[in-house]
Write a structure and sequence with these properties.
Elements: H1 2-30, H2 33-39, H3 44-50, H4 54-67, H5 70-76, H6 82-100, H7 105-119, H8 123-149, H9 161-177, H10 193-205, H11 209-216, H12 218-232
Length: about 230
């Protein structure tokens, strides 16, 4: 059994390696399961025993790449805390803004694919979101619970993971608005969109202004204080 399992795992890795080469050369649209099978020197039927669709192949590759990111892995291995929660949100905001700024065309194509999937059969979107939840969901929820216990956030009530998805979809939409060569929306004259997005999302998750100011730094502290003054006026 062990030998069979190793053989199956090795074949799976060979398929993924072939798929990465195909996607890199031809993009998602130009790659077919038949071309991946040929590159892996196996039949298409055998490929389908390991991956039921092209979307499943691509989602697995993205998951592997996330797990190979040392910065992300270091963050996910931290103790759950308010600080970890803030860094998760900050990292997500930075990721999407880099895409929107045109600094990673491959990621931009993936973002477009995620959106078109949701307008089509949704297969790729479902697979990708499931992998994101599996990777990040537990540490997000645990960190939010610690923040509540520490008095840094209000109790979140039911379905705390929904707060992660609300934040994710908000910043993804913000990135989409700025993705075209001529942005659909430039968010006025904001010089620090990253800070504004982080503060907006963290407040939505339930963090109080004192915790946000403490964990986002002095510039953010000033902004949070100004906002608190404006809200009380």
């Amino acid at each position: 059994m062990s030998s069979l399992r190793m053989t199956s795992d090795l074949r799976r890795q060979l398929i993924l390696g072939a798929a990465k080469r195909c996607f890199a050369r031809h993009g998602y649209t130009g790659t077919t399961t038949k071309s991946v099978a040929a590159a892996a020197a196996i039949s298409e039927a055998l490929l389908f025993k390991h991956f039921p669709s092209k979307a499943a192949l691509y989602a697995e590759i993205l998951s592997d790449e996330c797990e190979a990111d040392p910065a992300l892995m270091e963050l996910l291995e931290r103790e759950p805390s308010t600080a970890t929660l803030v860094e998760l949100i900050r990292g997500m905001v930075q990721h999407f803004l880099l895409i929107a700024d045109g600094l990673d065309q491959e990621e931009a194509q993936r973002l477009r694919l995620t959106v078109t999937s949701q307008l089509d059969d949704g297969e790729f979107g479902r697979l990708l979101y499931a992998k994101i939840e599996n990777l990040i969901g537990a540490i997000f929820v645990a960190s939010l619970e610690r923040a509540v216990t520490a008095g840094d956030a209000r109790p979140c009530g039911i379905e705390p993971l929904n707060l992660f998805w609300f934040a994710h979809h908000t910043v993804m939409t913000a990135a989409l608005a700025r993705l075209p060569a001529t942005p659909c929306l430039v968010y006025g004259k904001a010089n620090d969109l990253e800070r504004q997005l982080c503060e907006f999302l963290l407040r939505g998750i339930g963090l109080n202004d004192a915790a946000i100011a403490s964990h986002l730094g002095h510039d953010q502290a000033a902004c949070a204080g100004q906002t608190a003054i404006a809200e009380s006026a």
